[in-house]
Amino acid sequence: MNNNKYKILLVEDESNIRNLISAMLEASQYHVITATTCGEAETMFSSYLPDLIILDLGLPDKNGMELLKLVRSGSLIPVIILSARADERDKVEALDMGANDYVTKPFGSAELLARVRSALRNNRHCSDEGKLPGGKFVLDDLVIDYDARQIFIAGKEIKLTQTEYNIVALLSEYSGKMMTYSAIIKAVWGYPDEGSIKKLQVNMANIRKKFGIKPGEKSYITNELGVGYRMCSDKN
Ligand code: CA
Question: Is 136-231 a CATH 3.20.20.370 domain?
Answer without folding.
Answer: no
